[in-house]
From TrEMBL:
It is found in: Cell membrane. Residues 363-562 form the Major facilitator superfamily (MFS) profile domain. Keywords: Hydrolase, Lipid degradation, Lipid metabolism, Membrane, Signal, Transmembrane, Transmembrane helix. PROSITE patterns: MFS, SUGAR_TRANSPORT_2. It comes from Streptomyces thermolineatus. This is Major facilitator superfamily (MFS) profile domain-containing protein. Residues 1-19 form the signal peptide. InterPro entries: AB_hydrolase_fold (IPR029058), MFS (IPR011701), MFS_dom (IPR020846), MFS_trans_sf (IPR036259), Sugar_transporter_CS (IPR005829).
Length: 562
C-alpha cells in the first residue's frame, strides 16, 4: 500500500497546475493581462491510475442518530463519504465528476480556495477515472483504507490517491467532515458549509475529536455494509457486490495535515485500524500542547532492573534511584504553561465540578472503583512479593527484580497485541478478563510451592494490567461528553493514586496481623468480587464486537444509527 500511495502522490502532484491537453492553458502573465471576460476558464485532468483494476465509485450518506452535530445545534451528525473500489467492469457506466456540482460551484465562487479569481478554473468539468455505481469486483475481499483530508479541506483533494489505490486492489473510503469542511453536498443538492473558525486551539482540538468520532462511525456503518445491509440514510441503491468486497479485518488509514493527525488518533482509540500514514500532520495543537499519546511499559522494565542491580550494593540505593523523580517533577512544574486552556467564551474555572461529573455519569464510579482495585493490588504485589520470594529461597536483589520485570514485560506484550485482541473480543470480555487474571495471580502468590511457579503470578498480573488500562481509558473517555473528558480523565488518575496510597495502609496491616498466605488469599478475594459484580451487572457489555455487525443484514436497529 505504501508504494501505491507514494506513486499516486508523485503522479498527482504534477497535474495540479497542468491544463488538459488541447485545452486552455493555465493563466500566465500574458493571460492575466487580458480582461476577465476574454480569458477562458482553465480545465484540468487528473492523472490516470496505474493499477490493473478498473475503478468504481459510489457515495454514502451516513447519519448518526446517536450523536448530535458538534457544530450545529439540534442536528444529528451526518457525513458524506466516497467509496472507491476495484470494479468488474467500467464499461457503460458514466465517469464520476471530481466534485459534486454544489462543491464545484463553491470552489469557483471562493476563487479556487483563494488561489485565483472566480471563473478562472473550471472545477465542474473535471472528471475522475472511476465509473459511477459500477459493479464491484467481489471475487475476493479487499483491504479497506480510510482517508481524512486536511483541516477545512474537501475529500475531493484525495481523489487521485483514492483512485490509484483502488486500481491496485484496495477499497478506499474518503470522508468529508461536515461543517468543518468548506462545502459538502448531500443528496438532493443540499450544500452544507463550514461553520466554525479553524484558527484557535480549542476549535482545532474539538475538530480532531469530532473527526475521530466520524471515522469510528464510518467503520461501524461499513460493518453493516459488509454484512449485506445498506447503511445509506436514504437507502439508495448500492453497486452490486460492494459489501462482499470489504475485508474489515484489514483496515488502514491515511490523511493529510489534520487528516494525518486524525489517522494517528483514530489508530490510538480504535483497534480496528491496523496501520496508518500521517502525511504532513503535526501531533500537537501548539508549541507546548500535544495530542494525548499512549505510553508503553518499558519504564517498568528498566527501572526495576536498575534498582535490582544497585540493590546488590546497598538496600538504600534503589530508593535513591526513584528520588530522581523529585528534580524531574520540579522541572516539569516550572516548565508547564501558566495559563489554563478554556473553551470559547468560557472563563477559567467554569464548567461542572468533579462531583457534578460523577452525579451525571455514575457509570464512571464503576470504572474508577476498578482502577482503585487494580492500583491497590499492583502495589501490594510489588511491596510484598520480595517477602514471598524469600520464603521460596530467592533473596538476591537482581533475581527478585526479574520477577517485577516479568510483570512489566507482560504488560508491554499485551500492548503490542491489544489491537488484535480488541478486534476479536468486546470490551465486556476484556474487562472481565482483567480481574480474573488478578485473582489467579494472587492465588498463585498464596499457594505456589516454589520460585518457578511464583514467577507466573506477576506474569498473570501483568497480562491483566495490560488489558485493563486501555479498556478503562477508552470507556472513561467515551462515557462522557468531550466538554468534561479532561475532568473525567483527571478523576481517573485520582482513583489510581488513591489505590497506590491505600495499598500499604490496608494490605500491610492485614498481612502483619495474619500471614503472607492469608493476606494474598484475602487480596485475591477483592478482584474476585469485582469479577462477580461485572458478571452480574454485565457492565460494558452493551456495545457490539468491533467489526462485527448486528445479526440481521437489514438496516440497523433503532438503538443504533441509520
Amino acid at each position: 500500500m505504501v508504494a501505491a500511495l507514494v506513486s499516486s502522490l508523485v503522479v498527482g502532484a504534477g497535474t495540479v497546475a497542468a491544463a488538459a491537453p488541447g485545452r486552455a492553458a493555465p493563466a500566465s502573465s500574458t493571460s492575466n493581462a487580458l480582461p476577465a471576460a476574454v480569458r477562458e476558464a482553465v480545465r484540468f485532468e487528473l492523472p490516470r491510475p496505474t493499477g490493473r483494476h478498473a475503478v468504481g465509485v459510489t457515495e454514502l450518506h451516513l447519519v448518526d442518530r446517536d450523536r448530535p452535530d458538534p457544530w450545529v445545534a439540534g442536528a444529528d451528525r451526518e457525513l458524506m463519504v466516497g467509496v472507491w473500489y476495484p470494479a468488474r467492469s467500467a464499461r457503460r457506466y458514466p465517469r464520476q465528476p471530481y466534485m459534486p456540482p454544489g462543491v464545484a460551484r463553491h470552489a469557483d465562487e471562493s476563487g479556487s480556495f483563494g488561489l485565483t479569481r472566480p471563473g478562472e478554473v473550471d472545477w465542474a468539468s473535471a472528471m475522475t477515472d472511476a465509473a459511477s455505481a459500477a459493479p464491484a469486483d467481489d471475487r475476493t475481499a479487499r483491504p479497506v483504507v480510510l482517508y481524512s483530508p486536511g483541516l477545512g479541506d474537501s475529500r475531493a483533494f484525495g481523489t487521485s490517491t483514492a483512485v490509484e489505490l483502488a486500481s491496485r486492489g484496495y477499497v478506499v473510503v474518503t470522508v468529508d467532515h461536515t461543517h468543518e469542511c468548506a462545502a459538502v453536498e448531500f443528496p438532493g443538492g443540499r450544500v452544507e458549509f463550514r461553520k466554525p473558525p479553524t484558527a484557535d486551539t480549542p476549535t482545532r482540538r474539538k475538530a480532531v475529536e469530532t473527526r475521530v468520532h466520524d471515522i469510528r462511525f464510518v467503520l461501524d456503518r461499513l460493518a453493516v455494509l459488509g454484512a449485506g445491509g445498506n447503511p445509506d440514510a436514504g437507502k439508495r441503491r448500492l453497486p452490486h457486490g460492494l459489501g462482499r468486497a470489504l475485508d474489515l479485518e484489514r483496515v488502514g488509514m491515511y490523511g493529510h495535515s489534520a487528516g494525518g493527525i486524525t489517522a494517528a488518533e483514530a489508530m490510538r482509540t480504535d483497534s480496528r485500524i491496523d496501520a496508518g500514514i500521517n502525511m504532513d500532520g503535526t501531533l500537537q495543537y501548539t508549541g507546548t500542547e500535544f495530542l494525548r499519546g499512549t505510553a508503553t511499559s518499558m519504564g517498568g522494565v528498566l527501572w526495576p532492573l536498575l534498582a535490582g542491580v544497585v540493590g546488590g550494593i546497598s538496600w538504600h540505593l534503589p530508593f535513591g534511584v526513584y528520588l530522581l523523580g523529585v528534580p524531574l517533577g520540579i522541572a516539569t512544574a516550572l516548565l508547564l504553561p501558566r495559563g489554563r486552556p478554556n473553551g470559547p467564551g468560557r472563563p477559567a474555572g467554569e464548567g461542572p465540578k468533579g462531583r457534578e461529573v460523577l452525579r451525571r455519569h455514575r457509570i464512571l464510579l464503576a470504572w474508577y472503583g476498578l482502577q482503585f482495585c487494580g492500583s491497590l493490588l499492583l502495589y501490594a504485589l510489588v511491596v510484598f512479593l520480595p517477602q514471598r520470594l524469600a520464603e521460596a529461597g530467592v533473596g538476591d536483589p537482581l533475581p527478585v527484580s526479574l520477577y517485577t520485570v516479568g510483570m512489566s514485560g507482560a504488560m508491554s506484550l499485551i500492548g503490542l497485541a491489544y489491537a488484535r485482541l480488541r478486534a476479536r473480543l468486546p470490551y465486556s470480555v476484556l474487562l472481565r478478563g482483567a480481574p480474573a487474571l488478578w485473582t489467579a495471580a494472587f492465588l498463585l502468590l498464596a499457594v505456589a510451592p516454589n520460585a518457578p511457579l511464583l514467577f507466573l503470578a506477576p506474569l498473570l498480573f501483568g497480562l491483566g494490567q495490560g488489558v485493563f488500562f486501555p479498556v478503562t481509558t477508552v470507556l472513561i473517555g467515551e462515557g462522557v461528553p468531550a466538554a468534561v473528558r479532561g475532568q473525567a480523565t483527571s478523576l481517573s488518575g485520582t482513583a489510581t493514586f488513591a489505590g497506590q496510597f491505600a495499598s500499604p495502609l490496608l494490605i500491610g496491616p492485614l498481612i502483619q496481623a495474619t500471614s503472607l498466605t492469608t493476606g494474598f488469599l484475602l487480596a485475591a478475594a477483592v478482584p474476585a468480587l469485582a469479577l462477580a459484580a461485572l458478571w452480574i451487572s454485565r457492565a460494558g457489555a452493551t456495545g457490539p464486537r468491533p467489526g462485527v455487525p448486528a445479526p440481521s443484514p437489514a438496516p440497523a436497529p433503532a438503538s443504533r444509527t441509520e
